[in-house]
Structure formats: structure tokens, C-alpha cells
Amino acid sequence: MPEALAIAAVFAVAVVAYVSGWLHARNPANYNVAKELIRLSEQHQFLQDRLALAQRERWSPDMINTLSKQLDAISSESGRLRTGGALQSFPGS
């Protein structure tokens, strides 16, 4: 019986940690536009490097198109944040 209580306690702690992390992530006060722009620029640079590698190594056209679409999405999101669309881009707002 004590084993069952220990398992239940561990499960309860895991649920509490998950819910508190989820609530913290959903809080608009924790959304920082400057950090998001930095993250987007780093992701954009990574995708540019990956696209150059894909073209150099002649990857499949589908993979190259996917990388190009991802670059376009990152560029549009970055532009939207720069023009003041930060509140609209926060998930759930």
C-alpha cells in the first residue's frame, strides 16, 4: 500500500508541475517581443544555412520547397512582430 501512495504522490506532483508550466506559458505578461524577434532571426539564419546546404547537395525538390516555405513563414511572422502585431501573434489571444 505505501508503494501506491508513493506513485500517487509522484503523479500528483507531475500533474501540478505540468499545469503550472502550462499556465506560465499561456500568460501574456510573459511574452517578450524582443526575445521572440531574436529567436525568429536565429531560426531564419538556421533555415537559410539549411536551404543553402540543400541546394548545394541537391536535396529533393520537396525538401527545398518545404525549407523555402518555412523561411517565408518566419519572415512574415518577424515582419508582423516588427509592425506591432505582437498581441495578435500570441497564441490564444
List keywords for this structure.
2 domains, disordered C terminus, mainly alpha, 93 residues
Radius of gyration, in angstroms, nearest whole number = 20 Å
> How much strand?
under 5%
Give the strand tally. 0
Helix coverage percent of residues? over 70%
User: Low-confidence stretches at least 5 residues in length (pLDDT < 50)?
Assistant: 87-93
Q: What is the count of DSSP helices, taking H or I runs of 4+ residues?
A: 4
Please tell me the total number of domains. 2
* End-to-end C-alpha gap: 46 Å
Give the averaged pLDDT, no decimals: 88
Q: What structural class is derived from the secondary structure elements?
A: mainly alpha
Q: Give the biggest sheet.
A: none
What's the helix-strand series?
A: HHHH
What overall form do the CA principal axes indicate?
elongated
Structure description:
The chain has helices spanning 2-26, 33-56, 61-82, 86-89. It is mainly α. The N and C termini lie far apart (46 Å). Mean pLDDT is 88; it is low at 87-93.
Question: What is the fold's blueprint, element by element?
Answer:
Layout: H1 2-26, H2 33-56, H3 61-82, H4 86-89
Helix pairs in contact: 2-3
Summed up:
By secondary structure, this protein is mainly alpha-helical. It contains 4 helices and no strands. Helix 2 (33-56) packs antiparallel against helix 3.
